Amino acid sequence: MTTSLDDIRARIAAAAKTAGRDPADVTLTAVSKQQPWEAIAPILAAGQRVYGENRVQEAVERWSGRREEIELRLIGPLQSNKAREAVAFFDVIETLDREKLAIELAEAIQREGRAPVLYVQVNTGEEAQKAGVAPGEADAFIEQCRREHGLRVSGLMCIPPVGEPAGPHFALLAKIAARNGLGALSMGMSGDFELAIRFGATHVRVGSALFGARA
Ligand SMILES: *Cc1c(COP(=O)(O)O)cnc(C)c1O
How far apart are CA 201 and CA 197, in angstroms? Predict the structure, then answer.
């Protein structure tokens, strides 16, 4: 039987090949937020090891008993007062987007003696309701994170506006990453991960296409 995981993996590999890229350079982040354990268990059993969550508390509740088996990525907004908990629990935090959070993360990394991989979230569509630094401020923010706060930034993440072609947003994120020497690009979701791979995504975040619609 072909599972949704086989299907998504095959689509990732095909999209990478079409783009002249090595499929091994694209990682599937299975977005398990708001999913019942019955939906996650078969995917975990089938060998999927990288998961994305958008809330610290929910992630801790879902994964704390299984923490060693998996890589956990925070893909939702992080409140400054949760920085320490997030640093203690996540392998990757994809949503660094403001100086106050940079300060809190730097302090938490010192105190916890543990440094998650950090991505800066860019609000490529400059939407008021969306988190992320504006594209025009990204270079300065990345530099500030590195120089003033001693943070090692490894990549960028974006969530393009709903109802707009995503291609230009993916292209913009890739361009900002390239000029800042950043190798990791988290972009593409259930509806557009193949397109994101064409534009250079190294990590695609797939939820509903893998697990079914969220509750
Ligand atoms: C929920 C979520 C996803 C997954 O969305 P799907 O359309 O279900 O694949 C990806 N990225 C972020 C940041 C999310 O919050």
Answer: 5
| Mutate which of 12, 27, 74, 75 for ligand 1 pocket (most atoms within 8 A of beta carbon) | 75
CB-side exposure of 110: number of CA atoms within 13 Å? 9
DSSP 175: H
Task: Tell me the pLDDT band of 1, cut-offs 50, 70 and 90.
Answer: low
Mutate to test the pocket of ligand 1, among 73, 95, 121, 189 (most ligand atoms within 8 A of CB): 189
Measured from CB, residues less than 6 Å from any atom of ligand 1 are 31, 33, 54, 75-76, 159, 189-191, 205-209
Specify the ligand 1 atom closest to the Cα of 29. Answer: 10
Q: What is this structure's pTM?
A: 0.97
Given a contact cutoff of 8 angstroms between Cβ atoms, the answer to whether 200 and 175 are in contact is: no
Q: Helices marked H in the chain — which ranges?
A: 4-18, 37-45, 56-63, 83-89, 99-112, 138-147, 167-179, 193-198, 208-211
pLDDT value, residue 131: 97
